[in-house]
Specification:
The chain is an alpha+beta fold and 340 residues long. It is built from seven helices and 13 strands.
Length: 340
Amino acid sequence: MTLIQRFGSALNLNIHFHMLFLEGAIYENSWGGTTFTRIKAPCHNDMVELVHTISHRIARYLEKVGLVRRDMENSYLNLPVDDEDSLLQLQGASVSYRIAMGPQQGQKVFTLQTLPAITEAEYGQLANTSGFSLHAGVFANADEPEKLERLCRYISRPAISEQRLSMTQHGKVRYELKTPYRDGTTHVFFSPVDFIGKLAALIPPPRLNLTRFFGVFAPNSNLRAQVTASQRGKNSPKLVNIRDEHLDKPYHARSMTWAQRPVTGESERVFNIDINECEKCQQHNVSIIACIADIHVIQKILKYLDKKYPTTKQATLPPLRAPPDEEHDFTIQHNFNFGA
């Protein structure tokens, strides 16, 4: 699985890839089962050769699509910088740690160095060349599920951590780095307007999938059911004889309508509510009979419910309000936020 991350620790635009993969290969053997063959970890020379190959392939691709122009002496970007509707100005300032907006536009972002500088030599599964870096030194054994979970949480963390975000007495936005830089930098400071510009530069383009699946764990893999504990996927032995409750025919992969998604997805996973279950008889006998999208019809239905169920303590429909009342006990959880 690959997660495309667009941000650095200082809220700078830094596109990089976090990849989870097996240290080996799974293939189907001759007797219908699967066999896993482990490979040894790469050495430093292997990493240098690999990052060199990756950097050249990326450069050739960017040149092929017209984003990079190359002449006899140097290479340069070919981007529509004068386009007023694009975010290239904000993205360029974010990449180069520059201030994008305000009277100090073009200057370096103000940083705070509270630790002594350190030198870090290249070693092991780490390589740097031509501005590209590659690291493959983090791994989890089969008997270390907690370590694998921490790794998954780290690579899927959000762009910003509220625990490390604060305001100074002078109205500046102060953001603490998750890991100090080698020169001792621990904090960066932005004006409120430039802070919004930094966040805007991190927004991915529309219709861009930032999570990619590949190999035997991909949803469309023929071997996924044989190598996963849930045995879900194509050719799953658990789903051979299962009958669909509503259609009364063998299970088959099908897409859900937009009306079915909140019923079977968000309501059950987030709120622990099964909308298909009747409140009185506790049976799964509730089904979608209509999809009402006309705003006038919706308003008529809501007015009727307001008349039938007035706003009282025993009312079926609660009154419309914004934040929850203090008398209710809500527990808020922030998943994948590791700023502490």
